[in-house]
C-alpha cells in the first residue's frame, strides 16, 4: 500500500480503508494514514472535515441553482443570413368602394336577398328593437363567405396597381422581377394580398440589394364616379328605420361612420400563417410613399432545451381556407399553436367559435357562434348567457404552447420613413390619361382614366380637378421595401445554469477546499470493490492473499511516507 507498513495501521480500522486513505489524491486526508503522531493525525483529519463541510455547503448552493431552472439569452451579431419574409397587405376596410356599386342585376338580387333574409332572422332571434350596430355586425358575419368575397371585398386588380423588384445600386440594366400578388382569404380581414416570391427571387433581393416596389389603392367609395350598375342595399332596422350603407359597414363593430383608410402590412416568416396577433405589422396610409427597411432576428434554443422547452422538428400545420374550406399547409409557428388551443378551449366552453379566428384542419368543422347561417337558435341563446374568463383561457393557451414552440424561429421588424406622394407638381393627370382604359376591367380605374383625359383636354371644371386630386390623395400608396442587411443577429436561449457548468463549478470547489478533482470520487468505487472482495473471501472461508512487499533494492520510498515527526 504505497509504503504504508501494516505495523503502523491501527488495528481498529480496516486495512482496505487505510490503504485508500494513504493513496487518496485528496490533500490532507492521506496524512491521517501515515506514521505521524496522533495529534497531527487528528489535526489533519479535523481540517479535512472542516474544508469538506465548506465544500458541501457550497455544493448544495450549486445543486439548488441547477434545480431552479431558468433561462438565459446570448446575443451574437451577424450570425445568420437574412431571409426575405412573406409580405401580406390587408386593407383596413376590406369592402370595395367600387365593385359593390357596379353589380349586375343578378348579382345585386343575390346579395340583397341574402341581406334581407339575415335581417329577418335577426328579428326572429333578438327582436327588431336591438341596436343597429349589433344587427349590422351579425348580418355581415352571417353572409356566405363566397358572396362577401366575390361581390363585396376588394380585389387584386383594383387594389394592387403595380409590383416590381429592381436593383438599388450597380448596373441598372438588370431585368426587373415582377412578383405575383395573389388574394388570400383571411377570417379577420376578409381579404389580404400576398406578395409571392420564389426562393431565387428572395436570394437575389437580399444578396444584390434589390428593392420591392408596390403601388396600392385603397379603393374608396367615390360618389363622383356615378357607377351605372346596381348597388348593395343598406342594412335596415324595421323598428327604427335606421340604415347602415355599405360604405359604413365594419366587420368588427358592425357600423363605422368614420372609416379608416389604408393597409396593414404583415411581415411574416417564410411559410408561416399571417397572424395579426403574432407577426410584425404596421399601417400604410394613403397619399404617402414609404421606404421600408426590414430586419430579422433569429432565436434558437440550445441542445439541452430541445424536447423540453421547444419542439425540435416541428411538423407543418394544416389550416382550413376561410373561403373555400380546402386544406392550406403552413410551417409550424407560435400562431398555429395559439389558434389551435384557443379554438379548442372556446369550443368546449360555448359549443362553437365566438370570434373569427383561423381554424386548423383538425377543427375545420367548428361552427361560428355569431353566424346565423351556421348556429341554431338554442345554441345562439347559450352563447349569450355563458360567461367566460378570457384571461384564464389565454393563460391556459400560453401554458399549453410554452413547450411547443419551434426550436428555431425568426422575428422581423421594420424601420420606415415616408413622404407625401404623389406631389402636387407631379404629372398625375398625364400619367393616368395615357393609360389605356380598355385594358382595365376595374370600374374605379376606368373612371379615373376618363376623368384624367377630360382634365388633359381642358374640358372640365375646377370642381372636376379637385375631385380627381381628392380621389388620388385618398387612395394611392407607394411602398419601397429593402433588406437592411444581408446578415442578421442570432439569439441563443440556453439554461441559466447547465449541467456542464455545474460539473465545472463542482470541480473547482473540490480543488479549492479538498485539493482534488472529480476523478477522486472514483476512488470510492475502488474502496467499495476492495471491501466487497474481502467480504466475499471471508464469507467463503478463504484467506485474503498477501499483498506483495515493496521492492527494497534501489527503489525510493513513497514521498508521502518520507516524513519525520517534529
Class derived from helix and strand content: alpha+beta
> Main β-sheet, in a few words?
7 strands, mixed
Estimated share of beta-strand residues: 15-25%
Integer tally of domains: 2
Whole-angstrom Rg: 39 Å
State the separation between the terminal residues, measured CA to CA. Answer: 24 Å
The number of helical elements comes to 15
Fourth CATH level, the homologous superfamily of the largest domain: Acid-sensing ion channels like domains
Number of strands: 20
Question: What is the second-level CATH architecture of the largest domain?
Answer: Sandwich
Mean pLDDT comes to 85
Q: Which stretches are poorly predicted, pLDDT < 50 over at least 5 residues?
A: 1-13, 548-566
**CATH topology tier name of the largest domain:** Acid-sensing ion channels like fold
Q: Estimate percent helicity.
A: 25-40%
- Assign an overall shape: elongated
What would CATH call the class of the largest domain? Mainly Beta
Subcellular location: Membrane
Keywords: Ion channel, Ion transport, Membrane, Sodium, Sodium channel, Sodium transport, Transmembrane, Transmembrane helix, Transport
GO molecular function: ligand-gated sodium channel activity
InterPro entries: ENaC
Amino acid at each position: 500500500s504505497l509504503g504504508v507498513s501494516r505495523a503502523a495501521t491501527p488495528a481498529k480500522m480496516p486495512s482496505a480503508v487505510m490503504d485508500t486513505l494513504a493513496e487518496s489524491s485528496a490533500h490532507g486526508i492521506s496524512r491521517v494514514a501515515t506514521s505521524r503522531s496522533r495529534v497531527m493525525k487528528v489535526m489533519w483529519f479535523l481540517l479535512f472535515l472542516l474544508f469538506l463541510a465548506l465544500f458541501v455547503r457550497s455544493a448544495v448552493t450549486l445543486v439548488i441553482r441547477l434545480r431552479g431552472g431558468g433561462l438565459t439569452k446570448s446575443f451574437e451579431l451577424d450570425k445568420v443570413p437574412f431571409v426575405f419574409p412573406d409580405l401580406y397587405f390587408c386593407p383596413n376596410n376590406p369592402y370595395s368602394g367600387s365593385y359593390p356599386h357596379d353589380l349586375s342585376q343578378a348579382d345585386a338580387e343575390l346579395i340583397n336577398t341574402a341581406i334581407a333574409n339575415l335581417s329577418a332572422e335577426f328579428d326572429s332571434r333578438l327582436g327588431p328593437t336591438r341596436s343597429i350596430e349589433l344587427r349590422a355586425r351579425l348580418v355581415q358575419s352571417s353572409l356566405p363567405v363566397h358572396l362577401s368575397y366575390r361581390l363585396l371585398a376588394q380585389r387584386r386588380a383594383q387594389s394592387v396597381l403595380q409590383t416590381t423588384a429592381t436593383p438599388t445600386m450597380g448596373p441598372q440594366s438588370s431585368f426587373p422581377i415582377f412578383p405575383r400578388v395573389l388574394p388570400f382569404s383571411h377570417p379577420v380581414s376578409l381579404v389580404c394580398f400576398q406578395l409571392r416570391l420564389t426562393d431565387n427571387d428572395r436570394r437575389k433581393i437580399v444578396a444584390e440589394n434589390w428593392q420591392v416596389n408596390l403601388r396600392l389603392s385603397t379603393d374608396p367609395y367615390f360618389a363622383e364616379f356615378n357607377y351605372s350598375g346596381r348597388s348593395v342595399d343598406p342594412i335596415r332596422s324595421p323598428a327604427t328605420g335606421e340604415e347602415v350603407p355599405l360604405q359604413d359597414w365594419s366587420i368588427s363593430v358592425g357600423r363605422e361612420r368614420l372609416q379608416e383608410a389604408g393597409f396593414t402590412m404583415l411581415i411574416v416568416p417564410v411559410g408561416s400563417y399571417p397572424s395579426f396577433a403574432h407577426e410584425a405589422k404596421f399601417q400604410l396610409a394613403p397619399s404617402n410613399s414609404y421606404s421600408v427597411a426590414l430586419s430579422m432576428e433569429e432565436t434558437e434554443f440550445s441542445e439541452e432545451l430541445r424536447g423540453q422547452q421547444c419542439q425540435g422538428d416541428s411538423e407543418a400545420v394544416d389550416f382550413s381556407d376561410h373561403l373555400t374550406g380546402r386544406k392550406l399547409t403552413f410551417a409550424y409557428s407560435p400562431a398555429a399553436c395559439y389558434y389551435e388551443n384557443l379554438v379548442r378551449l372556446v369550443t368546449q366552453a360555448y359549443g362553437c367559435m365566438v370570434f373569427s379566428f383561423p381554424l386548423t384542419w383538425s377543427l375545420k368543422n367548428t361552427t361560428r357562434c355569431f353566424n346565423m347561417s351556421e348556429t341554431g337558435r338554442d345554441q345562439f341563446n347559450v352563447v349569450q348567457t355563458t360567461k367566460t374568463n378570457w384571461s384564464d383561457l389565454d393563460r391556459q393557451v400560453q401554458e399549453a404552447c410554452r413547450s411547443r414552440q419551434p426550436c428555431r424561429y425568426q422575428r422581423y421588424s421594420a424601420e420606415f420613413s415616408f413622404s407625401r406622394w404623389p406631389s402636387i407638381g407631379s404629372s398625375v393627370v398625364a400619367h393616368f390619361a395615357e393609360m389605356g382604359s380598355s385594358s382595365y376591367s376595374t370600374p374605379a380605374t376606368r373612371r379615373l382614366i376618363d376623368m384624367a383625359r377630360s382634365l388633359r383636354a381642358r374640358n372640365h371644371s375646377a370642381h372636376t380637378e379637385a375631385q380627381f386630386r381628392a380621389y388620388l390623395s385618398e387612395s394611392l400608396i407607394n411602398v419601397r421595401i429593402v433588406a437592411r442587411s444581408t446578415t442578421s443577429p442570432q439569439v441563443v436561449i440556453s439554461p441559466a445554469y447547465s449541467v456542464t457548468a455545474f460539473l465545472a463549478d463542482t470541480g473547482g470547489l473540490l480543488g479549492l477546499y479538498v485539493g482534488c478533482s472529480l476523478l477522486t470520487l472514483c476512488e470510492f468505487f475502488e474502496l467499495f470493490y476492495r471491501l466487497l472482495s474481502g467480504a466475499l473471501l471471508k464469507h467463503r472461508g478463504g484467506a485474503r492473499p498477501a499483498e506483495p512487499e515493496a521492492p527494497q533494492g534501489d527503489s525510493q520510498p513513497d514521498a508521502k511516507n518520507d516524513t519525520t515527526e517534529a
